[in-house]
Structure to design on (788 residues):
């Protein structure tokens, strides 16, 4: 193992000390630091290190690990950042990660090893080995191992049991057995459809042929011969001692720890490994290996795996094929909760690289780093060097706001969203991407990857996106969705992976695996749909189950996976928190407390009382019991703001009036003692929604306002993704669910407020802070009497 080499400077150390050192390394204790790069790779290592550190900082990736191989030598292996924030463990080249679908390559190689021994026939029906395997099929073609290894089996992406969302950790036998309750999406052999379920079946076949558990056979026949000491399909104590923490994120801004449960489809996804071990595995793919080099398959078998299958130049037997500057590039990536992995090689040249990032969906970032490393290897062999990759810059807040809006060419519509200094592009389907300034233009650059340049033509007001030229279009308020869909729109699944059913642009859509959005095509009935021709789950059936009494869905099944409906607080339109103390106790504690002492200077306070009129109305919740605590806090229904904030709010009202919209005020200035009562009444797990009295709030300074829109003609409040003071993710300003109309109202309010230099609070779409809030002191004065 590369990580166990003894540096030359220890050559004179006493033999007993060397034995002690080897024992220390063998027992799994990580080295003090990663080994240095090979001398001839120094410039490349410095360039790659700068790229990695830049990407980590910009994309907020906790850790990145990389290993680079030239022939039989690992010329550089290094870890950056923190592998475990819980104890501050730094990332190392020997840090272990969950590498997801890299598992499939190990499984494919293991199957090919049996095929090379004539113990298995890749083109025989799978039922020869698994007679009980019987998914429903209207086709005459039977599934083979070759179909499974090339993702042409026609199986659903996920099995009903043991799937990506299933935390119950069922056996491989139970997982594969559940596929008999599914139907094939496509005829086997006819088209590519990526299937985790398919590789689970291949692993189960290996178990049946070998007569032993998959994990044990692969350990003995594949991992051990390659010397992969930090690699396993099981979370052994040695693996867990080196395991990094994964980080999850989603569109609404939440960042949270990744779940750690094992999947039932282990051969497809359960591999644990380090970048050093992964690159060692990749070295075994090299077409020309020297005598004595570790190899699992002979040259003929390996060439078979790398050759195109089914006349598809992009797919070998398990390997994804492509080109890098004219060189054959093979490999696979991995996406597992909180981790992203890229494993790639130029097998004819004998170059390989492994990159892992501890952030969900960072595969594009890993690939960019990996390809730059491979280009360095090619240049190094030719005696050349590479220029560092040019960076990108934020669009800037003013430019982002200027470009925000709806853009279309009549066939395709995209939306640009301003988010601080960044500009985000929402395509018709797929992923939302961040645009950045780059080389005189704009390019997509975010954690999911880099590329796809966009040209923003300021003079002609054109957006060039791919081959299309889009023009700015009006963005009128969308109509309400059909009544039949209202019972379907909502959240499904589990806390660790929520499925959203939403309405967008007159279509019902799925947002699956947190980030991938796809339209539903209507099927045979109002509750039966099919996913389109693109995406993770393309072609799969989507079936809703309704409560016959209420008409609301209780579950939705996507392909093989049944997602139960999630019940959220506030679903009935009334969000309530059970106070931790009685009203009398809260008032007593608040009266005895004092606001924090602040260093000045501060502006002189100038609180003015807002006045209701045709475009400004009050619904002061804390002057009634219609609030999250069910208690009255204010003596009367009114609102105050510092004068500059009040004047800015009046300009917002004037801006919205021609559109038939007014402002409905929920709250503005809030005395500090009320903030103290909120805090003492609210359970710990919900306190991100209430201000900490030890720091005071923007409301206490008279510089924050809670509000929504209302329709001037009907007087009705605008429908939003959540109610006011609803302490759920639906309240977040970037919550992706709901209807087009709800999100349009939320975005229109935000744009109008930001135009007057208010900023939205990250957990509440209704809460806006004036830009100068820091210049005012905390106030604790109760509301003045009328005229007082």
């Amino acid at each position: 193992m590369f990580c166990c080499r003894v540096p030359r400077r220890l050559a004179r150390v006493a033999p007993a000390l060397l034995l002690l050192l080897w024992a220390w390394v063998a027992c799994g204790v990580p080295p003090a630091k990663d080994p240095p790069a090979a001398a001839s790779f120094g410039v490349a290592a410095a360039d790659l290190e700068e790229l990695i550190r830049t990407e980590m900082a910009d994309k907020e990736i906790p850790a990145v690990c990389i290993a680079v191989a030239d022939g039989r030598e690992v010329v550089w292996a290094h870890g950056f950042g923190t592998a475990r924030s819980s104890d501050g463990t730094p990332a190392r080249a020997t840090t272990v990660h969950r590498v997801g679908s890299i598992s499939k390559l190990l499984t494919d190689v293991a199957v090919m090893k049996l095929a090379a021994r004539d113990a298995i026939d890749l083109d025989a029906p799978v039922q020869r080995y698994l007679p009980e395997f019987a998914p429903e099929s209207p086709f005459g073609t039977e599934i083979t191992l070759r179909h499974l290894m090339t993702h042409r089996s026609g199986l659903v992406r996920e099995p009903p049991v043991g799937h990506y969302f299933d935390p119950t950790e069922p056996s491989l036998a139970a997982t594969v057995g559940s596929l008999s309750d599914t139907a094939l999406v496509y005829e086997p052999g006819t088209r590519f459809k990526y299937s985790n379920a398919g590789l689970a079946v291949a692993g189960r076949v290996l178990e049946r042929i070998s007569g032993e558990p998959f994990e044990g056979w692969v350990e003995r026949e594949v991992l051990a011969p390659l010397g992969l000491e930090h690699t396993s399909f099981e979370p052994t104590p040695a693996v867990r001692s080196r395991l990094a923490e994964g980080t999850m994120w989603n569109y609404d801004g939440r960042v949270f720890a990744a779940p750690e449960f094992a999947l039932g489809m282990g051969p497809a996804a359960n591999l644990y490994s380090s970048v050093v071990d992964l690159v060692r595995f990749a070295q075994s793919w090299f077409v020309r290996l020297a005598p004595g080099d570790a190899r699992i398959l002979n040259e003929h078998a390996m060439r078979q795996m790398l050759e195109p299958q089914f006349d598809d130049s992009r797919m070998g037997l398990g390997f994804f094929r492509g080109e890098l500057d004219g060189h054959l590039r093979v490999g696979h990536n991995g996406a597992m909760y909180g981790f992203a992995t890229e494993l790639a090689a130029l097998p004819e040249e004998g170059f390989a690289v492994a990159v892992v990032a501890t952030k969900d969906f960072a595969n594009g970032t890993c690939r960019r780093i990996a390809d730059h490393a491979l280009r360095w290897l090619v240049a190094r062999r030719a005696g050349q060097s590479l220029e560092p990759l040019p960076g990108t810059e934020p669009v800037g807040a003013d430019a982002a706001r200027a470009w925000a809006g709806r853009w279309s060419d009549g066939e395709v519509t995209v939306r640009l969203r301003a988010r601080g200094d960044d500009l985000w592009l929402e395509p018709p389907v797929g992923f939302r991407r961040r645009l950045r300034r780059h080389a005189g233009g704009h390019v997509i650059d975010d954690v999911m990857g880099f590329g796809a340049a966009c040209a923003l033509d300021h003079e002609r007001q054109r957006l060039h996106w791919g081959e299309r030229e889009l023009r700015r279009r009006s963005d009128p308020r969308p109509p309400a969705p059909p009544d039949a869909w209202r019972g379907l729109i909502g959240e499904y699944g589990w806390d660790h992976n929520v499925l959203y059913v939403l309405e967008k642009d007159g279509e019902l859509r799925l947002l699956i695996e947190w980030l991938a959005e796809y339209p539903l095509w209507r099927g045979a009935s109002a509750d039966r749909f099919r996913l389109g021709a693109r995406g993770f789950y393309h072609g799969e059936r989507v079936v809703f189950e309704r409560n016959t009494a209420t008409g609301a869905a209780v579950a939705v099944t996507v392909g093989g996976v049944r997602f139960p409906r999630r019940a959220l607080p506030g679903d009935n339109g009334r969000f309530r928190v059970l106070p931790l103390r009685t009203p009398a106790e809260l008032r007593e504690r608040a009266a005895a407390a004092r606001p924090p002492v602040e260093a000045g200077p501060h502006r002189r306070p100038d609180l003015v009382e807002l006045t209701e009129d045709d475009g400004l109305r009050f619904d002061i919740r804390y002057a009634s019991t219609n609030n999250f605590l069910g208690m009255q806090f204010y003596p009367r229904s009114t609102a105050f703001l510092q004068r500059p904030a009040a004047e800015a709010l009046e300009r917002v009202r004037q801006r919205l009036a021609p559109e038939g919209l007014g402002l409905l005020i929920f709250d503005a200035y809030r005395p500090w003692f009320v903030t103290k009562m909120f805090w003492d009444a609210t359970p710990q797990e919900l306190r991100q929604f209430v201000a900490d009295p030890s720091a005071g709030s923007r409301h206490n300074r008279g510089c924050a306002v809670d509000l929504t829109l209302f329709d001037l003609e009907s007087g009705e409040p605008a429908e939003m993704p959540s109610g006011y003071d609803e302490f759920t993710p639906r309240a977040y300003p970037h919550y992706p669910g709901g209807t087009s109309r709800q999100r349009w109202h939320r975005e229109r309010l935000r744009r109008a407020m930001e135009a007057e230099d208010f900023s939205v609070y990250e957990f509440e779409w209704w809460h806006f802070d004036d830009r100068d809030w820091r210049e005012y002191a905390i106030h604790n004065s109760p509301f003045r009497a009328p005229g007082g």
Remarks:
- DSSP finds 18 helices and 34 strands in the chain.
- The chain has a mean pLDDT of 92.
- Residues 363-381 form the longest helix (19 residues).
- The radius of gyration is 30 Å.
